[in-house]
Amino acid sequence: MSPHAWILCALLWLLTGDRSQSASRGPVPSRKRRLAEDGEPKKCSYTFLVPEQRITGPICASQGPSLPDKERVTQTNVADVHEILTKQRLEMDRLRLIVDVDGNMVNEMKLLRKESRNMNSRVTQLYMQLLHEIIRKRDNSLELAALEARVLNGTAEVLRVSGLYRELELRFSTVAALVNNQSLLIAALEERCLQVYGNHPREPPPPPLLQVVPENIPVYVPRLSNEIQRSPGVPAPEDRPTRQANASLEGPFRDCVQVMQAGHTASGAYLLTPEGSETPVQAWCEHDVDRGGWTLIQRRSDGSVNFFRNWDSYKKGFGNVDGEHWLGLENIYNLGKQEDYKLLVELEDWMGKKVYAAYSSFHLEPESQAYRLRLGSYQGNAGDSLTSNNGKPFTTLDHDHDAFSGNCAHFHKAGWWFSACGQTNLNGVWYSGGVYRSRFQDGIFWADYGGGFYSMKSVRMMIRPVD
Ligand SMILES: [Ca+2]
Questions:
Q1: What's the CA-to-centroid distance between 399 and ligand 1, angstroms?
Q2: pTM recorded for the entire structure
Q3: Contact at 8 Å (CB) between 349 and 450?
Q4: Quick one: average pLDDT of 91-98?
Q5: Centre of ligand 1 from the C-alpha of residue 356, in Å
Q6: Superkingdom of the source (predicted)?
Q7: Which of 251, 287, 382, 423 could form a disulfide with 447 if both were Cys (CB 3.0 to 4.6 A apart)?
Q8: Predicted confidence (pLDDT) per residue in 417-438, tens digit
């Protein structure tokens, strides 16, 4: 039972007790009547204030005819009630406070719940994002793995192809060596046949064939042919018109460096008049190689010019200055004696690869010395095949100055600074396709690049004053 109920019961008990006492004693005379009966006014001994809603008006207790003590409302009872009331008020205040605090807590709880819902929503959203990210990364890893697999496959393929390439190179070297040996064998057999069956006068023995098959032999599918090939559409040397030189009223220029210094920086044909030369000579000035100023003394490019010529022809020069040509020993001699020149030999194989051999100095001795070749030190990536010809006089079919018992010009079908007969001949027969088959090594060969049976696709020999 609540404290309020207890208070209410106590008050009802007090009131009902008072009334029952009054009822047992009969009607209670009113105060006025009692005043009239007693003759003098009597004062209330005690005045009680009780809650309005329960008791109205003062409660009077007469000292007159006394009620039994136990039935009277004593001061102690009132004090007890008052104390109970006070306690009840305090309790109510405390409860109100608790209720207020509880209300605040409820609001906070609501806020917390709302916040919790928001947090849950946010966590769900983040979780979804994380899930999405994980899926995306997994897809990326799959793509990366696929890419890696493709790279690995590509690498394996490259390795396989490079293995095949090496194998082909080995096979080619084997075939080239075989061709070389076969040529030697054929030559020996031919000679023996002539000795046994032939009544023909014995020919001079050919020079020894070069056995050189260097490691850096140009890779090419060999085409065995003895025919001298010419590019389609290239007219015969006799029919080919000679291009007019870039004739200039300036000059005379003694070499292509002077041409370049005079402002003619385009490569082309120019008229040069070297010191000691009686007439101008047409020469090709190459300005697109190594700072320019190079004077070409020889060019091979398509087999359009026959280089198997006599002394006089080699002395004066022949061919077309913008194509295959030989500048002439006398002109080369005149150029080389002007000052210190250097030589550049440019070789191109049938794969289109260009290599070069440079010599630090170059000049020829006069005709009385058969235009003996004088070379400086080698530098380049073609290999040094020309030093074997250094110090050697020039030989043609009709002027044999070589060290061989026969005439190297006869076997190599060219005029050159043969020794016996040397590691190179750039005036030989122009064979199409590189590797050629012939009784003699008569192609345009450079033994240190391709061997004796590999004919170059194009060759240029050019000189320029030393810097
Ligand atoms: Ca000789």
A1: 9
A2: 0.55
A3: yes
A4: 91
A5: 29
A6: Eukaryota
A7: 423
A8: 999 898 999 999 999 998 888 8
